[in-house]
């Protein structure tokens, strides 16, 4: 196994940090974790972080930013167990669904957590329902489950799991059972939430923390 000094600069309740922590745990890679206060970012962090965002992974003191890039690097440095498909087309598809999560799901979920405007909330719920339909269609093309690409937990799963870790907060805010009409997606979410790595990286007070920042 490649030998590198890894330090992940983190924030306790950040879903993007969770993604990278899940990948490090799944591969059982030794790493240091440094938690910072995002409302009072230390100077040393601002010096090495072009966007001032976490996660940031230092690999032998080289800073790497963007969770998606960090996770692919971990996969390349520590290929076992494999978390990305071999075939370029399958890899491209996996990346597409990671981008889909970033661009469609995260924003609309954030609206559910943090907006108090009825019209904006209704729109977000509609976008999410359409997105759930799309994801279910994709899940239904698999030969087997329970994970996004089959029987192995992969990088796409590490991106979707933090979202499901945050479901409870949306329910507490009165948005009901978001997966009421999406049984396949519910089964997928349950498989991810069952995973030790996903449970382990979840902050103890995650739901309370989201609720304390919502309207
Ligand atoms: N696209 C980035 C998003 C990271 C991100 O938005 N991190 C948030 C915390 S969850 C952050 O660092 N916010 C601080 C800021 O924007 O000043 C990634 O995937 O790594």
Please give a handful of descriptors for the protein shown:
single chain; alpha+beta; Glutaredoxin; 2 domains; 4 strands
Write the layout of secondary structure elements.
Blueprint (H helix, E strand, L loop, with lengths): L5 E5 L4 H12 L5 E4 L7 H6 L7 E4 L2 E4 L1 H11 L10 H27 L3 H22 L15 H11 L1 H9 L7 H11 L2 H6 L4 H8 L2
Parallel strand pairs: 1-2
Antiparallel strand pairs: 1-3, 3-4
Helix pairs in contact: 1-3, 1-6, 4-5, 4-6, 7-10
Radius of gyration: 17 Å
Instruction: Record the strand order, biggest sheet.
Output: 2-1-3-4
Q: Which CATH architecture of the largest domain is right?
A: Up-down Bundle
Which CATH class of the largest domain is shown?
Mainly Alpha
Identify every distinct bound molecule in the structure, by name, code or SMILES: glutathione
What's the number of extended β-strand segments? 4
Order of helices and strands: EHEHEEHHHHHHHH
Task: State the separation between the terminal residues, measured CA to CA.
Answer: 47 Å
CATH T-level fold name of the largest domain = Glutathione S-transferase Yfyf (Class Pi), Chain A, domain 2
* Whole-number total of structural domains: 2
Please state the structural category. Answer: alpha+beta
How many strands, which pairing sense, and closed or not: the largest β-sheet?
Answer: 4 strands, mixed
Strand content: 5-15%
Residues in helices, as a percent range:
55-70%
| Low-confidence sequence ranges | none
Mean pLDDT: 95
Shape field: globular
Instruction: Give me the number of helical elements.
Output: 10
Care to describe what's here?
The mean pLDDT is 95. Helix 1 runs parallel beside helix 3, helix 4 runs antiparallel to helix 5 and helix 4 (88-114) packs parallel to helix 6. This protein is an alpha+beta fold and 215 residues long. Helices cover 57% and strands 8% of the residues. The chain is built from ten helices and four strands, in the order E-H-E-H-E-E-H-H-H-H-H-H-H-H. The chain has two domains: 6-77, Glutaredoxin; 88-213, Glutathione S-transferase Yfyf (Class Pi), Chain A, domain 2 (Up-down Bundle), CATH 1.20.1050. It has a four-stranded mixed sheet with strand order 2-1-3-4, with helices on one face. The structure holds glutathione. Residues 11, 14, 16, 38, 52-55, 66-68 line the site of glutathione (GSH).
């Amino acid at each position: 196994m490649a030998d590198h000094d890894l330090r992940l600069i983190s924030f306790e309740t950040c879903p993007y940090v969770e993604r990278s922590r899940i990948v490090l745990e799944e591969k059982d890679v030794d790493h240091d974790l440094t938690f910072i206060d995002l409302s009072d970012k230390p100077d040393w962090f601002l010096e090495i972080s072009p966007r001032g965002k976490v996660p940031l992974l230092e690999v032998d003191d080289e800073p790497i930013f963007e969770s998606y890039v960090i996770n692919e690097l971990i996969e390349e440095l520590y290929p076992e167990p494999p978390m990305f498909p071999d075939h370029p087309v399958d890899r491209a598809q996996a990346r597409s669904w990671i981008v889909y999560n970033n661009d469609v799901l995260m924003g609309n979920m954030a609206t559910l957590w943090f907006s108090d405007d009825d019209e904006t909330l209704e729109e977000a719920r509609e976008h999410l329902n359409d997105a759930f339909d799309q994801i279910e269609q994709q899940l239904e093309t698999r030969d087997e489950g329970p994970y996004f690409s089959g029987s192995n937990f992969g990088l796409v799963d590490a991106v979707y799991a933090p979202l499901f870790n945050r479901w409870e907060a949306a329910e507490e805010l009165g948005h009901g059972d978001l997966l009421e009409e999406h049984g396949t997606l519910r089964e997928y979410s349950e498989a991810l939430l069952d995973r030790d790595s996903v449970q382990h990286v979840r902050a103890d007070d995650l739901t309370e923390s989201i609720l304390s920042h919502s309207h």
